[in-house]
Design goal:
By secondary structure, the protein is an alpha/beta fold. The protein has helices at 63-67, 78-94, 112-118, 132-140, 152-162, 180-190, 204-209, 226-235, 266-277, 283-309, 321-329, 363-367, 381-387, and strands at 4-5, 17-26, 42-49, 55-57, 59-60, 103-106, 125-128, 145-146, 165-171, 191-202, 222-223, 239-246, 252-258, 314-317, 340-341, 359-360, 372-375, 397-399. The strands form four sheets. Strands 8-7-6-9-10-13-12 form a seven-stranded mixed β-sheet, with helices on both faces. It has a five-stranded parallel β-sheet with strand order 16-15-14-17-18. α2 crosses α3 and α5 (152-162) runs parallel beside α6. The protein starts with a strand and ends in a 7-residue tail after the last strand.
Length: 406
């Protein structure tokens, strides 16, 4: 089975879901290839719950296919290493966790965030991540990591060996689970009565406002707004009390919840009011969103056409998951690109998902006399330009594909 179709809302189980956006079919976004061969093309469509307002993907691809051989590694990005250091400092300041308290991270990847806590003297840390190879890297770096999906059995194992957790973290994984009710229930059961559940997710309002449509792919089953989250968490014995808007991934929210009820912060109330003001739960909003995606695609295709007409050589920078969605949604052609640059050694030597464009190191930017570089890893746009300022001279250009294109 390639996928199954959602029938009920992932948060409230209501079966009244409206289709609000259909993007072109794509293969799984992170399914990089060693050779050119046919890949499954799977529909990519968003549904809006008419009851609670939650936005979610209709198509559910088996998680074993998406996450067991995961290639994204947090520690390869200096930007994210600093982000996690800042996150650890913010969380420590906001909570009353002791250095002896158990900290558990769901989807801990290579342990970069937990390492930030350890560097501040928190030694009782534990990661959970199903990507076998990346979990092994974390264990080799002395960040104890269970190479499994976070579920009831894993929670029982953690509790029997370590007791209750005072802090449970989930960065960019609370959008990945098909069973958010089960995940929230497991979090609640493992969490100490005085504990905190803190998670980061891409923020739906930023996705719409900033045209971050390429963050829509099969790994991301949920597109979170605050209003639907509040009632959902309460149903599982967790109380959202504070939300911070952060710049990660183009626009995210860091959510603070606890097992004891705490009044919503004024900052959070203001953000909820903004969601209503922006009509985030209106079908019309997503219709206009789709039109803006099409218009931006036309602009980028025209830019590429003019460059190729003038015999310019083009490459891409970054092979994140969003590259796949963007290339298919914008109807870009693989033959227009010499290669895609990525600084991750895990991806170099492979081919992009679906389009099968070679992924190479940044050295090729200088060796192949490239004229234009489209930055698909647009969340690192500024740092990429700064790092390669020497190249970005003599008429050579970087292009951000989701911003204004001249």
């Amino acid at each position: 089975m390639l996928y199954k179709s959602r029938k009920n809302c992932i948060l409230c189980k209501n079966n009244e879901l409206s289709s609000v956006l259909e993007l072109p079919k794509t293969p799984p976004a992170n399914e990089l290839m060693t050779k050119r061969e046919s890949q499954d093309l799977i529909p990519l469509s968003l549904m809006l719950c008419n009851s609670c307002g939650h936005v979610q993907l209709k198509e559910i691809v088996p998680p074993e296919r998406l996450f067991r051989k995961y290639l994204y590694v947090s520690g390869t990005s200096p930007v994210f290493i600093q982000h996690f250091k800042n996150a650890a400092s913010s969380i420590i300041e906001t909570t009353n966790i002791d250095k002896k308290d158990l900290i558990v991270e769901i989807g801990s990847n290579d342990g970069t965030l937990l390492q930030a806590f350890r560097s501040k003297g928190y030694a009782n840390i534990l990661g959970v991540d199903p990507a076998n190879e990346i979990a092994e890297i974390a264990n080799q770096n002395q960040i104890t990591t269970i190479p499994e999906f976070f579920d009831k059995n894993v929670c029982e194992k953690i509790f029997s060996e370590n007791g209750k957790a005072k802090l449970i973290l989930a960065n960019n994984v609370f959008a990945h689970s098909e069973d958010l009710i089960g995940m929230a229930n497991d979090v609640s059961s493992l969490l100490d009565k005085e504990g905190y559940f803190i998670f980061e997710v891409s923020y739906l309002l930023d996705v719409i406002d900033k045209l971050l449509f390429d963050t829509i792919y099969h790994e991301h089953l949920s597109y979170h707004a605050i209003k639907p989250l509040i009632k959902f968490l309460e149903n599982e014995g967790l109380y959202l009390f504070h939300v911070e808007r952060i710049n990660s991934h183009g626009g995210s929210i860091r959510c603070f919840a606890s097992k004891k009820k705490i009044d919503l912060s004024e900052e959070t109330k203001n953000i909820i009011d903004l969601e209503e003001e922006k009509k985030l739960f209106s079908i019309e909003t997503y219709k206009l969103f789709g039109q803006r995606i099409n218009m931006q695609g036309q602009l980028l295709r025209k830019k590429i056409y003019n460059l190729k007409k003038n015999k310019k050589k083009i490459c891409g920078f970054g092979a994140p998951a969003k590259l796949t969605t963007l290339m298919y949604a914008f109807d870009l052609k693989s033959e227009d690109f010499e290669f895609i640059i990525d600084d991750s050694k895990f991806k170099q030597g492979l081919l992009t998902s679906g389009m099968h464009i070679p992924i190479v190191s940044s050295e090729r930017l200088y060796e192949d006399d490239i004229d234009a570089c489209i930055v698909f890893a647009w969340n690192f746009y500024d740092s990429i330009i700064k790092k390669h300022a020497k190249w970005n001279m003599n008429g050579k250009i970087f292009i951000n594909p989701i911003e204004d294109i001249n």
